[in-house]
Amino acid sequence: xxxxxxxxxxxxxxxxxxxxxxxxxxxAAVTGLSxxxxxxxxxxxxRVAVTGHRVVVNCAAWTDVDGAERxxxxxxxxxxxxxxxxARACSDNGALLxxxxxxxxxPGDARSPYPEDAPTGPVNAYGRSKLAGERxxxxxxxxxxxxxxxxxxxGAHGPNFVTTMLELAARRETLDxxxxxxxxxxxxxxxxxxxxxxxxxxxxxxxxxxxxHGTAAGHTTWCGLARETFRLSGLDPExxxxxxxxxxxxxxxxxxxxxxxxGNWLRAGVAPLPSWDDQLTAALKAPAFAALxxxxxxxxxxx
Length: 303
What we know:
dTDP_dehydrorham_reduct, EC 1.1.1.133, Rossmann fold, RmlD-like-bd, NADP, NAD(P)-bd_dom_sf, six-stranded parallel beta sheet
């Protein structure tokens, strides 16, 4: 039996991978709407878009962390109020909602992975705006709402840290990279597979509603991620120099420890995501990353 899926934010880094993942599912009829096609802050437009769909995957979001610090109301309009519109429309139409959130809802002061039910406490405007969206899903969809927190997302379809490191490698001999923030680099294609698996488990009645942590196993620092990216790309990791966060002051405070636990996947019968380094190894074989690595190696040879 064919199931109708709606993917919002469909032209973003994650949205494009979710569409690609669902495209190979013969039982999924998929509608993808970009920000230009659906403004989730417009409740009437959201109601029309959700009607007729059984599963909604919300990849639409304000993702500019520093911009949110300067314009918190605008960020909350998307990440909070917009998500509330989606949750209400899903409630009215009997649809499941898979909403993508963030590790930034936590303060980052833990010393062990945050479980799904750990107390929240965002330290920046972006985290507060995303927490508002989580609360809307929990309130309006207690039995059919799924919150999937992710972190340090990278992929082939948009700006991200891995792409930036490879681009800079082609132009600079050495790079300073932050080494005092800890997180879980997560490949957008792997997260897309996880979202699709969670949606299918929810449709089958196997996955309880609630919070799931969609991040890679293990953890590293930004410098650790950069060094592994260089090593796997045939570049010299010693070109990277570890520095403290104070070297790069930003408008928004970043949590120092954004490592998440993955206990709830067992309840859904879905395996947690693989380790961050295994994901990175697979991701760097994609043509977009391979081309950047080749250009960076060429620059290294001629420098």
